[in-house]
Design a protein that fits this description.
Distance between the termini: 50 Å
Largest sheet: 8 strands, parallel
Strand order of the largest sheet: 2-1-5-10-9-6-7-8
């Protein structure tokens, strides 16, 4: 598929410059973009439209400022007819079928950096699996407010966007016995190959799983007290990604505080700052071993037009930093993004015709709101005391 040419920022605004490419250390020269148009992993409509809205806002043109050669390989779409609940798990056939198709599409793109535009976070099951089929041993850096390692035995909601790691984590085999849709899963993530950053809304069952498996994690309290540089340095030291064991960065936009990214379905206050997120992505890129990135849970049906554009802008920033754009380049592009809001708003009448047709849902009542990060901080302290 040819690269999208809709709404490139430097063509919308006279005088806005496109940056020249510069050589940066990396695993490969070619980048494959795939849209993961899924919302069946969670209850709020809208996330399946995010990949195309990000394209319309110019994300392909933006990432072409990096030194990668970019190809848009289209979308994977979900089969709504497969919706249905099984033993308290919502839409397992739909999610499983979708993630299998995504895994196959990614694994067919060999010797490329894989950028997956979500979609809800259940899509990471497919993106990680596909990545592991092209590079057999991967390390996973999971940046999120939530651990997403529930199983059908522990999940309080049954929503699979909270279970992608539960499905594919080594040591949790058998937890989905009797749940259809996941027989295709071959590749599993080892507990020592996963590190979390930004956690602040964790279910009790997830805390037990992480402690029992010895999974390393850093809460947002850790980032606040220690500083993002210290946390990220330790995370990379624990993972030690390399050419033979590349890094998979799965970035949920709700890792950021809702002040920065309001249009997402399960918001939790006291989140990462924009600077924190950029530093994490920059360090991942500077490792020279980053092989794939997911950017997920942007929901263009939640909030006002400006909320949606603000959240999309954060997605641009995190992707750009992960692909090696300098902080100056990312900041300059942010200024351009703000300048492009008036012509885009005039063009669409709303943020996007799909959003206009759907109508905006209020993001003020997410599934769960964490009033204070005390429980995560307490669990983090207990983890350190027992280490």
């Amino acid at each position: 598929m040819a690269m999208s040419t809709v709404c490139p920022l430097h063509r919308l605004i006279p005088g806005v410059r496109a940056y020249s490419r510069s050589a940066r250390r990396r695993l490969v020269d070619n980048l494959s973009v795939i849209g993961a148009c899924s919302e069946v992993g969670q209850p709020r409509p809208g996330t399946r439209h995010a990949p195309d809205i990000l394209r319309d806002l110019g994300i392909l043109e933006y990432i072409s400022r990096s030194s990668y050669s970019v190809t848009d390989n289209g979308n994977v779409t979900e089969d709504q007819s497969l919706r249905g609940e099984v033993r308290g798990v919502k839409n397992p056939l739909a999610v499983g079928s979708f993630c299998n198709a995504l895994s196959e599409k990614i694994s067919s793109q060999k010797d490329k950096f894989h950028l997956t535009l979500g979609g809800d976070h259940s899509i990471a099951l497919g993106s990680m699996h596909g990545h592991a089929l092209t590079r057999p041993k991967i390390k996973v850096l999971w940046v999120d407010a939530h651990a997403d390692i529930n199983t059908c035995r522990t999940s309080p909601s049954g929503n699979l966007h909270g279970m992608p790691l539960g499905v594919c984590m080594e040591g949790l085999e058998g937890h989905f016995d009797g749940i259809p849709g996941f027989d295709w899963v071959q590749k599993r993530v080892k507990p020592e190959d996963l590190v979390y950053i930004g956690l602040r809304d964790i279910d009790d069952g997830e805390i037990d799983i992480m402690k029992n498996l010895g999974i390393k994690w850093f809460s947002n309290t850790d980032v606040s007290t220690r500083g993002v540089q210290s946390v990220m340095s330790e995370a990379m030291s624990l993972l030690q990604p390399s050419e033979e064991q590349p890094l998979h960065l799965s970035f949920d936009i709700d890792a950021l505080d809702p002040v920065f990214a309001p249009s997402t379905g399960t918001r939790a206050p006291y989140g990462l700052s924009r600077d924190d997120g950029l530093h994490i992505c920059e360090q991942a890129a500077q490792s020279g071993a980053l092989g794939a990135m997911d950017i997920v849970e942007v929901n263009p049906a939640l909030g006002s037009k400006l909320d949606v554009l603000k959240t999309a802008r954060m997605a641009f920033d995190m992707v750009g930093a992960s692909l090696g754009l300098s902080r100056q380049e990312v900041n300059d592009a942010q200024d351009e993004f703000e300048a492009v809001i008036p012509p885009l708003t005039a063009r669409y009448g709303s943020t996007h015709k799909v959003v206009r047709d759907m109508g905006h849902q209020s993001p003020s009542q997410p599934e769960r709101v964490v009033e204070e990060p005390q429980r995560v901080a307490q669990a983090s302290s207990q983890r350190k005391d027992s280490a």
